[in-house]
Design goal:
By secondary structure, this protein is mainly α. It has one domain: Alpha-catenin/vinculin-like (Four Helix Bundle (Hemerythrin (Met), subunit A)), CATH 1.20.120. Helices cover 79% and strands 0% of the residues. It is elongated, with a radius of gyration of 18 Å. The protein starts with a helix and ends in a 15-residue tail after the last helix. It comes from Acrocarpospora corrugata.
């Protein structure tokens, strides 16, 4: 393998993390748009909206579970000074899981016809989820992109770990 190829491999993990975060941000924005369309009376029926939410929630949960079980232990081993950062990120994951559960519960009880009370509750939950997720991603990117770019984990090259997977037409999953 030439040096350029090796260098690209070494910088790819941080770049891949950023790509996953961009994708998850886009998924959340698309879900928010679908929720707004539903409450404005011209969106998906509740069943389809719940399926849309489930897709986003599953992707975010898979990403964070992959970090907690795979990436963070590897980073902690190689960079022990980041253990507090990783602990903070895990705490965010727990908070995001709780918010995802709240959103899913609200969407499970959506009426067939939108109503203002439900709209307010759902929009508040999406706003809270978005705020925590954005803050979490920015913090994680500032703390871990350069670290990930400095790492060479052969098994991550051979089998893309869950925290770096994207479900799309490019075949990332």
């Amino acid at each position: 393998m030439d040096q350029n190829s090796a260098a690209n491999r070494l910088t790819s993990f941080g770049t891949q993390l950023l790509e996953v975060h961009i994708w998850l941000r886009e998924m959340l924005e698309d879900l928010r748009d679908s929720i707004d369309a539903y409450f404005n009376g011209n969106g998906l029926p509740p069943r389809d909206l719940r399926a849309h939410c489930l897709s986003f929630c599953t992707a975010l949960t898979r990403h964070h579970t992959g970090e907690d079980r795979g990436a963070f232990p590897t980073i902690a081993e190689d960079f022990p000074d980041l253990r507090k950062v990783l602990s903070d990120l895990r705490a965010d994951h727990n908070q995001l899981d709780w918010l995802l559960g709240n959103l899913q519960n609200l969407l499970e009880s959506l009426p067939e016809k939108p109503d203002p009370t439900t709209a307010s509750k759902v929009r508040e939950e999406v706003t809270a989820l978005s705020a925590i997720m954005q803050t979490h991603f920015i913090y994680e990117e500032k703390q871990l992109i350069s670290v990930l770019n400095s790492m060479d984990v052969p098994e991550w090259h051979e089998n893309r770990p869950d925290f770096l997977q994207i479900d799309d037409e490019d075949g990332y999953r």
